[in-house]
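Human: I hope this is not a bother. Would you mind checking the protein record under this note? Thank you for your patience.
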Amino acid sequence: MVGGHAVDYSVFWDETIEQIRQAISEQEFTLWFARIEYLRSENNGIVIGVPSSFYRDQVKSRYLSLIQNKITELFGGDIPIDFEVKANEAPKPMTRNDVPSPEPDRTTESKNSAPRTTTRQSLHPNLNKDYIFENFVIGDNNSFAANAAVAISKNPGTGYNPYLIYGGVGLGKTHLVQSIGNAIHRDFSDKKVIYVTMEGFTNEFIESIQNRKGNQFKNKYRHADVLLIDDIHFLQNKTETQEELFHTFNALYDNNKQMVFTCDRPVSEIKDLTDRLRSRFERGLKVDLQPPNYETRYAIIKKKIELNKVKIPDESIELICNNITTNVRDLEAALTKLIAFAELVGREITPEVTLQQLKDFFSVTIQKNITIDVIQRTVANYFNLSYQDLKSKKKTKTISFPRQIAMYISRDITEYSTTEIGLEFGGRDHTTVMHGHQRVIDRMKTDPTLEPMVKQLIRLVKEESTKRK
């Protein structure tokens, strides 16, 4: 107290928040700090308003020490911080203008670049109207990819060309590439935007050959202003389609036309892809998408809840975010099931309902997190072998049998193909994996101790995979 009045610490609080904004990611700051506010000074301390008990507990456990350290540095002494649960408005959804984007290189911008307009109101016939930047939640795993996509949509063909987005299923590649298309279609009235999957491109090409409409096919794709192609890994082993895309690429690139591609892996890992086409894909900007972290998963769920106008408690959201760590598609599928159950049965969504309805999602997610590497290391440790022994060419019984068990588990509890499993075991053929899998099955019929041992190993693998989430 000073002169009977509480000291006003609001200035210190404002500066503390500004420094925290600089210290953490924008997504993280928006998620955990946009809804807290300075309320008052009380008992020579600061009272902070938060929207819920869950929010209070999360901020305290994650950031209280950071907040206290920052404010101590500024004030020169300790200031107690208390939290008060107070109803607050939800943060405004991120708009396209809120997304930071790098400035394009003006030296490479075409002098004949079309003026930006907003006259076109019609939807693009081949693009999903919901795949727009406003609906894309940005986190640490995708901020580079998203910012580059926004920059391209503002100045197509001038900076990042071609643009390649790669990553696993359900991480948002299609959403981003179609967001680029929707934004350009909306803002540039004279640009011809073409979106197609690689499979669709291939089928059209084959049909043009069969119907002798090759020129019509070439004119369609080589006169595009923006060409968006999804899933170029489909090019694998398609020699003639690769040849056609190579010439299409050159025609567009030479005329400063924007190209965007997506792939489920780095281009270097696409088999039987011609070197000259591979070099074209790698010529521009390449960005990979990673699985979303906790903060991003939480923001995605909150965004979907907002769009669906449903009420889901914070505890249920936390359950989903902690148990589904694979990709955005799985998060959305789980939320869709939960909302459908609540609407059809007429029940309120609670943490108990969430656990009951999403138990299959939660168990499958653990299974999807299992890698062959974890299986190999777990089996090797169990049999007191080196991790490399299972991948080696050694064929002694003490190594070959554990290797067969590891192959059996890999095939039984993961979605990897026999070819992929074989590659992870020292480049073995898929028939070797099938043989090893069958050998374990046959031995289980005669050795009653083998099945319990395999089940124990599977349990150990799942436990190890859960630790690594």
